[in-house]
Amino acid sequence: MKLSRVKISSLLIVVFLITSYIIAQQSYFFKTADFAIFDRQSRYLAVQLAVDEDIVVIAIDDHSLKQMNTVAGRWVWPRTIHAQVIEALQPFALSAIVFDVLFAEQDIYRPAADTYFNEVLANSTGIYFATLEQNLVAGGGVLLKELPKELGLLKTPLAHENAKGSFILPLAINRQYWQLGSINFNASFDGVGRSYDVYRNLSGWHFPSLPAKLVSSLALPLPERQNVLLQWRGAAEQPYFTLSYVDIYQAIVNNNKEFLQKLSGKIVLIGATASGLYDARATPLSDQLPGVYMLATAIDNLKNEQYLIPVSDFSQAVIGVMVITLTCLVFILVSGYVRQVGYTLLLMAVISLILTSISTALLKQQQLLFIGAILLVMLVSFLIFSFFYGYLEYRRRQQALAMFGRFLDPQVVYKLLEEGALSPEQLNKKQTLTVLFSDIRNFTQLAENSDAEAVVKLLNQYFNQQVAIIFQHHGTLDKFIGDCVMAFWGAPIQRKPEQDAVAAINAALAMEQELLRFRQSLPTDLQSFDIGIGIHTGECIVGMIGADLRLDYTVIGDTVNLASRIEGLTKNNARILVSEQTKKISSHAFDFSYQGEHQVKGRQGKVHLYQPQRRDK
Fold it and tell me: pTM of this prediction?
C-alpha cells in the first residue's frame, strides 16, 4: 500500500519527536519541565501524607531569640543553655536529640560553658551533632586517613589512600561524644533541594549523613544508595510538630514536667527557623523552608522507608515513547480527518490528565515517574501537528477556493469544505440537476458595430451582475461560452430537485429584472441589448472533468444539450423558457404559460416549453 505524502510527513514528525525526546531526556530543558511537575505534585500530596509523630522540632525561632535575650544574650548563646536542655530532657527517655547546629568553634570567651556542655554530654545518651563536608580548594584539605576515627569515616575497598577532604568539625565537643553526620544541602541545577544524602562519597571513603547516622543507631535498615529522593510530607510552612526553644527552656526553668512529658520517646531536632539566622532552603514545599524541616523529612523518610524510588531511565524512556507515540498517532487521526483544533486540545487535555493522575498515584506509592518532559513533548507535538495540518488545511482551502471560487460564492466554498462536500467521492457522481443557459441575443452584430474595448467592458459589467445573481440563488457557475453563461443547481450544494428547479427559475427571473435595469444605463444604440434563458432538469454526470493540466468542475449529458437548445428557442418566443420536466417539479411555486411544442436538434420527439411567471401574492 502506497502512503500519501501527508502520512509520510506525519510519520517523519513522529519519529523526530520521539528521537528528540530520547536524546534530550536528561537535558536542562526537559529536567526543568520534569521538576516543575514533580514539585507541584509533591506540594499537592504533602498535605495528604502524615508525618512521623515521633519527630518533634524545637525551633530557635524569632520569638525565642527575643525572649532568650535576657537569659542568654544575643545569638550565639552560651552552650550552657543547650546543656541545661539536654540535662533536663534525659529523664524523659527521648529516642534522640539531634542538633542541626554547628558547634565548630570553642567558646574562648566562655570556656566554662563548653566545659559544662561536655560534662552533660558525658552523662547523656542519644545526642547527635551535625557537620559539613566542604568543597576542596586547590592544595587544601587534609588526608582522610589522618582525620579522627571518631568522625566515623568508612574506608571501602575502592577508597583512595591519599584522598583528601575538608569538614567543619564540632571542635567545641570532646571527640568521645561525637556522633556525627553530614547535613550538606544537595541542590539540583535549579537550586532546589529534592534529595538527601545517605552517605557522602569521598573518593571511596563513605561518611554518613546525619539522618543515616541516627537511623542506623536505631538499628533500622538503610537503603543501599548514596542518596534518596525525598517524599515530602506535611504542611509547607511547618511540616512537623514544632515547639519554640524558649517554651522548652521556660518549662525546664519552671520544672513543668507535664509540658516536657510531650517529648517522651520522641526524636527531637533542635535547629534554627529564625529569619535572621539564614538557614532557609529551596525545596518543592517552599522556597524558604528552614533546614531543620528538611533534616526532619530525611529522618522520617529513612526511618520509615518512605523515600521515593524513581523508575529506571530505560523504563522512563519506554513510557515516554509509548505515550508520545500514542498521542501523535491520535493527533494524526483527529487532526488529519476531523481537522478541528478543539478536538485535539480536548484529546491532549484528557491524555495529560490521565498521565498526571497515574504519576500522582505512583508518587503516593513512593514510585517516581517524571512526566514533565513527556507533557512538554506532547505540547510541542500539538503545536507542530496543529501548524502542519493548519498549513495543509490552508493550502487545501486556497486550492479549493482557486478551483471552486470560479463556480461558487467563496463563503459557500468554505461551508462545503467544512462539510467535506468537496472531496472527489462527493464531487464525481450522476444525479438530477437543473441546468441554465443564458445567452446574449444578436451579440455578433453588437460586437461588429462597437469598439472592442467597449464590448469587453459591457460584457464584464453584465456578467458580474448575472454571476452575483447565480451565487445569490446558490447556483454553481459552470463556464462562460463566449457571450453565454452556463450554470446549474444540485451540485456540489445538494438539495431536493424541486428546490433546485425553483432556485434556478428564481435566478432566471432575477437575471431578467437585472437586465432591464442594466439596459436603462446603456447608451441609446445599445438599448436593444437582450438575453435568452433556457432551463431544463434531468440526470447529468457532474465532476472534475478535463486534462491533467486543466480540470474543471462541470456537467455533461443530454440534459445540458437540451438546456442549451431551449435557450436557442427563446428568440422568437419568450426571454425565459423551461422544459416540461422543470415545470412539473416547480409548479408549486410559479405560474407557467405554455409556449408550444418545438422540434429540437438531436431529438426525435418534440419538447413542450413554458414561460415561468411569479405568482401574485
Answer: 0.72
